[in-house]
Specification:
By secondary structure, the chain is of the alpha/beta class. Among the domains are: 85 residues, Immunoglobulins (Immunoglobulin-like, Sandwich), CATH 2.60.40.10; 152 residues, Rossmann fold (3-Layer(aba) Sandwich), CATH 3.40.50. It has a 6-stranded parallel β-sheet with strand order 10-9-8-11-12-13, with helices on both faces. Strands 4-3-6-7 form a 4-stranded antiparallel β-sheet, with no helix packed on it. Helix 9 links the parallel strand 12 and strand 13. Helix 4 crosses helix 5, helix 7 runs parallel beside helix 8 and helix 10 packs antiparallel against helix 11.
Length: 414
């Protein structure tokens, strides 16, 4: 009874609210902006990139893939293109993953996250405010390692010339042909300096630098010690060698011992000729200065790697009137040695000393081959400066070609 009596009331209520709903909907619709109600044909959807090409990046180890594409025809000023999304999928995979982004106007991308021998396909999507428009798929690309990098052919030619020169001069020296080596005053003075110590009856002080045996300058100093020790053994002079590294002490002892054995006087050798002081830089320098002031050596050799202690040692040696022969490849210390010492081996002369003193064919040939490389470098600098200066100042087809050729010859292209 209750449901039957209320049914007419519910129907009348529904009919009453229909006009009110229609009026409210019309009022809300009148407040929507015209841009929302515009024709969908006016919505901007940019064109996709075309001709997507992926290829293995040349002359690498199969670690890169270069992707190129033609820009979207809508990639112009004023459009809402934000750039290009690079998508990649391995062969057999259905889903593409985003690996990078290129700004608008760019048409290349280098994928550096690939595996040598893998198979990949790429797709480029034009990104805009409303989403992305994808291109066609690229062909499959397989990154690989090239056996020869022809971009480095110029370096191969230069290296071949230098290496060929070394081999030629080594064979030349082995056949007994004399190779010209410029005289180095510091090395020529070794016998004179040791002879002076013999005449004065005073010892020789030899400092091989403060670095360990892993420094090539220390090795060069020990090589020269072998030459000094032979003369010391022949003249029966006392040599004093304080060192700052234990491994240098062991090496120096063996070097001097071998020199005494070669001179036929093994009994004259004593391990106390080489003494370990300390690894601490200025503690070592203080000890050496004390030895110099007390013993007053006639000749001091400083051959190796030196730092702030160079001037302290050289000034102390100068104050006791010793002949001093120094050599180092530390540019900042060379001025102090030049100012305070009698003879100085500058930079590369220290390393060339072993070949200079030994006359061993392999060392002499290597030294002469390096000289050829230096000559090539000097000649290239002169020709390059002339070509660049004349071509920019006065022009001329020959000098322009010369400038471009020298630039190509000495440019490393990856």
């Amino acid at each position: 009874m209750t449901e039957t009596s209320n049914s007419p009331l519910s129907l009348r209520s529904f009919i009453f609210f229909i006009p009110i709903f229609l009026i409210s909907f019309a009022s809300a619709l009148s407040q929507v902006p015209d841009s929302v109600l515009a024709d969908t044909s006016q919505i901007f959807i940019p064109a996709a990139p075309t001709e997507v090409v992926a290829h293995d990046f040349q002359y690498d180890r199969g670690e890169n893939v270069e992707i190129k594409w033609n820009l979207s025809s809508d990639d112009t000023d004023g459009n809402n293109i934000t750039g290009y999304v690079i998508l990649r999928a391995e062969e057999g995979a259905e889903e593409f993953s985003e690996i990078g982004f290129a700004p608008a106007g760019e048409s290349t991308f280098l994928d550096k996250d690939v595996i040598n021998g893998g198979k990949y396909r790429y797709m480029i999507a034009t990104a805009y405010n409303g989403g992305m428009v994808q291109s066609e798929l690229s062909d499959i690309v397989i990154p690989d390692t090239e056996a020869i990098n022809w971009n480095l052919l110029n370096l191969f030619v230069i290296g071949f010339l230098i290496a060929g020169s070394v081999i030629y001069f080594i064979s030349h020296a082995k056949r007994g042909k004399k190779l010209f080596i410029r005289k180095i005053a510091g090395l020529e003075a070794i016998d004179e300096a040791i002879g002076r110590a013999t005449e004065m009856g005073r010892p020789i002080l030899f400092i091989p630098g403060i670095n360990d045996m892993d420094d090539v300058q220390t090795i060069a100093g020990i090589t020269l010690l072998g030459r000094v020790a032979k003369v010391v053994a022949d003249y029966d002079i006392k040599i004093n060698m304080p060192v700052a590294r234990s491994l240098v002490m062991t090496t120096a002892r063996e070097t001097i011992k071998e020199a005494y054995i070669g001179a036929g006087r093994p009994d004259a050798y004593n391990d106390d000729m080489v003494r370990y002081i300390t690894d601490e830089q200025f503690g070592y320098v203080a000890a050496v200065d004390g030895i110099m002031v007390r013993d007053k050596p006639a000749t001091c050799f400083y051959l190796g790697a030196f730092f702030a202690e160079s001037l302290i040692l050289a000034e102390t040696g100068n104050s006791i009137g010793a002949i001093q022969i120094a050599g180092t490849a530390m540019p900042a210390q060379l001025p102090f040695f030049v100012a305070a010492c009698d003879y100085t081996l500058i930079g590369e002369e220290l390393f060339a000393a072993s070949a200079y003193l030994s006359n061993e064919p392999k060392q002499l040939g290597s030294l002469k081959g390096q000289d050829v490389g230096k000559s090539i470098a000097m000649l290239a600098i002169i020709i390059g400066v002339i070509g660049a200066t004349v071509s920019h100042a006065w022009g001329g087809s020959f000098f322009i070609w010369l400038n471009e050729f020298m630039h190509m010859l000495f440019t490393v292209r990856n």
